[in-house]
Specification:
alpha/beta, binds 1,3-dihydroxyacetonephosphate, TIM Barrel, globular
Amino acid sequence: MRQPLVAGNWKMNGSLNSVRELLKGIKAGIGDVGPAEVAVCPPFVFIPEAQAQLADTPVAWGGQNLSAEAGGAFTGEIAASMLLDFGCRYVIVGHSERRTLYGEDDALVARKFAAARAAGLRPILCVGETLEERQRGTTEDVVGRQLDAVLELAGAAALADAVVAYEPVWAIGTGMTATPQQAQDVHAFIRSRVAGHDPAVADGLRILYGGSMKPGNAVELLAQADIDGGLIGGASLKAEDFLAICKAAA
Ligand code: 13P
């Protein structure tokens, strides 16, 4: 049995005050959530606040990005070891906003994945196609290529304890959601791709859906056989909505 995981990707949102309130809200309601694992990924500067507030709770925290390098003259970058210093369990790697807005290609994403793994962080590897790619019928080519880059560099064993998030780019922040069947089809494809390398790793791999997941659509999405949780953007900024999704996963 795969333990469901619901992770909030706060992106570049919030202030110290709003983050304190949000963490307070999550802490207050987390007792009712049940068996799903819950994590939040705040902007880097708020990670110490998350650590301070969440240390005595079951909620984990993580980064939204990391450097592929271990350290040195890389102005503005954050190394895996630094995230670990602040108690991070997870780090998002290869989010589509990093890929499209900051030019991260498959090779760099794979190196970041390997850097996270080497440091003992659990990467949440994001994959997903654009609307144009879906309409052209190339969803599996794109997602397969994104997965293969990591499988080739890091090996299938590196996916044990890691997480994959299927985030169709056209569903991110748009209010458009993949139908449960569309999402399930890609999740099953991801699992089979990994199974081609290592069936046991594939069987244990948690594959999250991300893209306008909300309390209103979470139950249906999470009921799919290969959807093991969610990576939540907008709805993770409201404690009530985030906790409702966590409950739906449990
Ligand atoms: P939304 O939930 O706002 O669509 O964002 C999804 C996402 O990008 C999570 O990483």
